[in-house]
Amino acid sequence: MGLPAVEWWILDKMRQKQHSFLSVEGLTYVIDGQTILSDISFEVSAGERMAIFGPSGSGKSTLIRMINRLDEPTSGIIRVEGEDYRNIPPSSLRRRLGMVLQNPNLFPGTVADNLSFGPLSHGESLTEDDIRTLLTGVDLEGFENRDISRLSGGEAQRVNLARTLANKPEALLLDEPTSALDEAAKAEVEATIMSVINAHQVTCILVTHDPEQVRRLSERVMLLEDGQLVADGPVAEVLNVG
Amino acid sequence: MLGRWIENQVWLGAAQAGVTMVAALLVVWLTVRLKLGLKKDILVALGRGVAQIVLVGFLLTVIFGADLWIAVPVIMIMIVTASVMTIKRVSQIPNALRISLLGITAGAGLVIGVMTFLGVIEQDLTSIIPIGSMMVYGAMNTNALMMERFRSEVGSHVGQIEAGLALGASPEQVIRPYARRAVTSALTPNINGLRSLGIVWIPGAMAGMVLAGENPAYAGFYQFVVSGSIFVTAGITVLISIALLRKQVFSEAEQLLLRSEAEL
């Protein structure tokens, strides 16, 4: 649930005292003459739970892809803990800002193969205990050796989340993580996300077009419309105006 | 029968081609009767086929009278033409022509050069040009198959490729399975060709030598030289092309540039 304005103000002051984890300054993205994002600026504090909310085509997925550097902005800058993200090797940046894409896009093989992919790609391996712990975190105990073709939509998305967590990211970027799921699976995945955020105390940016999901998972929300940032503040305040 | 009436070899060839053309026109007539809608395609193909091959025949008559060095520009023209034809369906891939040109030049150039130097291909124009053309043709087909398959593999696995990148894997790591699949599928017809050599089919070089009265055993060995060289040329070509190609689909910031089949 969102917070009343006074509590938000107190939280905002507290956040200013915390260090800024992510800073986005004047981000603009133009492709084929069409402006997808226009001069977007905001900051995210460490440990904050923020949602980027807006209708389809508002540019929210593009924005989160740019934070993970899967797309390149036309202009503007993103800083991670004060450092220009262009100075961080893309693979390191992406491990720090773990992205969970809309569709799980799991790799062929077992659940364990998928969890090991990120660490293996930079020369680390997961122990059986690591895999068990990750699966327990997403409520999929005993799924290590299950082939991904035998997973339900909700299970696949939870494996996707665990696969991202295997890199021990400092922040989670969730791009419409439940949009392809039915109501029951959506509730399961949301519960898992909340439990993961609480357990890892990780900064979280969620992209969604579902206002109820914003209320359930976030404390702050940014409203995007036609590539413009039109509101940024406590959930109850922004969504009531929106 | 024709040989008894016509003594001049060129006129005899023309008459034989004429008989073949009549047979082909019968097929065209049948397709028209069956309303297959192929009339125009077949007529254009027949016209082009006969004009091109006869023209090349006359051209080779002139070329075979020239010095040995003429083989270099002739083979180069074949390589450039093959490279242009290779990229017809993959021109959206950045630098596709340059990659194809480098791949085919390295594959065909290396194999033709080494084989000629070692005397495996006889050092005369009547051997170098026809055998060289077979290698360039083989390299062109294999490279075109590989490039098309690679484009299609990338286009249909955008989600998994980006998921891999988002997990911090390098472009090299995420593209590897799709590059491997493209190379494997492109080389499979060559491998099958080698496997079935002599059992399922007797290829052109051997058939021609036997028809010309050569010892069939020698013709068999020589056919392997030709088929094996075509395989080596194709292999080198696709390995060089894929090494260059896999770098073209990512930006310097390790972002996937070819995003979907629709964009390709």
Neighbour order of strands in the largest sheet of chain A: 6-7-8-3-9-10
State the major sheet of chain A.
6 strands, mixed
Mean pLDDT of chain B: 90
Number of helices of chain A: 9
Output mean pLDDT of chain A: 90
Most residues in contact, chain pair and counts: A-B, 27 and 17 residues
> Helix amount of chain B, in percent?
over 70%
Beta strand count of chain B: 0
Helix content of chain A: 25-40%
How many domains make up the 3D coordinates of chain A?
1
Poorly predicted regions of chain A are none
Major sheet of chain B, described briefly? Answer: none
* Apparent shape of chain A: globular
Radius of gyration of chain A, in Å, reads 18 Å
| End-to-end distance of chain A | 16 Å
CATH architecture of chain A: 3-Layer(aba) Sandwich
CATH class of chain A: Alpha Beta
* Cα-to-Cα separation, first versus last residue of chain B: 55 Å
Briefly note the structural class of the backbone of chain A: alpha/beta
Structural write-up:
The complex is a heterodimer of chains A (242) and B (264). Chain A has 242 residues and is of the alpha/beta class. Helices cover 39% and strands 27% of the residues of chain A. Chain A is built from 9 helices and 10 strands. In chain A, strands 6-7-8-3-9-10 form a 6-stranded mixed beta sheet, with helices on both faces. In chain A, α4 (111-121) runs parallel beside α6 and α6 (153-165) packs parallel to α7. The two termini of chain A are 16 Å apart. The mean pLDDT of chain A is 90. Chain B is an all-alpha fold and 264 residues long. Helix content of chain B is 76%, strand content 0%. Chain B contains 10 helices and no strands. In chain B, α2 runs antiparallel to α3, α8 (171-195) packs antiparallel against α10 and α9 (204-211) runs antiparallel to α10. Chain B is globular. The chains are: A alpha/beta (242), B mainly alpha (264). Chains A and B meet through α3, α4 and α6 of A and α7 of B.
